[in-house]
Amino acid sequence: MDQSGSTGGQGAPTGPTSGWSAPPPPPAQPGPKGFVYADVPNRAIAYIIDAIILGIVNLVVFAILGGVGLHVYTFDLVNGFQYNYLFAIIEAVIGLAVSGGYFIYMWTRMRGTVGMKVLGMQVGDAGSGATLTQDQAIKRWIALGAPFGIVQALNPLPLLGILVGLAALGWFIYLVYTTYSSPTKQGWHDIFAHTMVVKATNTVG
How far is residue 107 CA from its own chain's centroid? Predict the structure, then answer.
């Protein structure tokens, strides 16, 4: 026994060990059971993948249209390059229809686009998680994809095309901001259509 009255040896009680320990990794933002809310970077990458797919489809469609005489650009030695505004708008409207058909079909039949599937994401009803109805998919696409198709359609028109393009850019920034700032990662388009995008926890990097 020492002067403090405590006993030494192996039988003496030990206190908590001192020193720093590595902090636990931050938990993934929880979502429905087995999922986390899909963040902005994952959704942006998925959208880029989908845009590439749609770009390839549009190239094929526009090549077919060119084969039947719908040329946006023409050239001859007298007039030089000519831009056909009517054909440009027709092609843009067709591109808009292709985009709408792609997103609406994939959301309602596959619960996600190709880009979303590659990253392990899916979209469903915000309340029940059920597959989107046709109305929900249309509303979500109108808020998310339609503005950029409209820009493409009106882009050939002087001044108006520029103004619409700037408005679409502002709208895109707003959607990104509302998605990023939402605790459930629901942008305005998700709130409007009552939808939610989630990612399986076993695919989260």
Answer: 12
